[in-house]
Amino acid sequence: MSKKGYLTAIIISSLFIIAACSSKSSEEQIHDHLEEAIQLEEGYETQQQEIQELEQQEQEIYSQIVELDMDQFDEIQQLSEEAVSVVDQKQEKLEEEKESIESSEEEFSEIESIISDLEDENVQQDAETMYDVMGERYTTYYDLNDTYQASVDQEKELYEMLQLEELEQDEVTNHLEALNENYESIIALNGEFNQLTADYNEAKRTFYEDSDLNVNYNDDSEAEAAE
Known about the structure:
This protein is elongated. The protein starts with a helix and ends with a strand. The protein contains seven helices and two strands. Helix 2 packs antiparallel against helix 4 (73-108), helix 3 (42-66) packs antiparallel against helix 4 and helix 6 (121-161) runs antiparallel to helix 7. It is 81% helix and 3% strand. A hairpin with a 5-residue loop joins strand 1 and strand 2. The longest helix is centred in the last third of the chain and has 42 residues, at 169-210. By secondary structure, the protein is mainly alpha-helical. A two-stranded antiparallel sheet has the order 1-2. 19% of the residues are buried.
């Protein structure tokens, strides 16, 4: 095919895509973006599970370390090196998790330009509420991820400190106190994120119920299909 023919094919294909999109109502287009955004978060769910498993491994190693004294420094050093490796893996999973959320947010943001096309004022208000809640949820997630990343850095520093034979106890204590403060922030932000997730699911359900869409829900309260 000539370059000109190839370009024509691209243009025709694009026109078909535009025509297919325009044949759907604004409610249906929003539905498609919402459900695709949720699909893109599946990576987040997977990473969460793997991070929890790594945290358990790390906790087991840490428990072994605190049971040892300086006469067993070689073993402390070896366990600390293992812990650093686990923390590095956790950091990688956090980055992958963040990429999933970023992809989801990019897809979700597509509905912003469609909301104004909704003819029913109540449905439009529902969509705006849903959009605002989800936006807050994404913002909270990024705060959570940043705080989590900071704690991972602190964990790694701790295990690197424990590999030093000459180490002041006060230094370790201060580091643990700072780490615990970050853990408390993580717990608070995680609670806020989970609440916003529940609020978003409720707002989305309200939007679907008030629109003309016939949407089926599974047991997890996620929309399965619009008929």
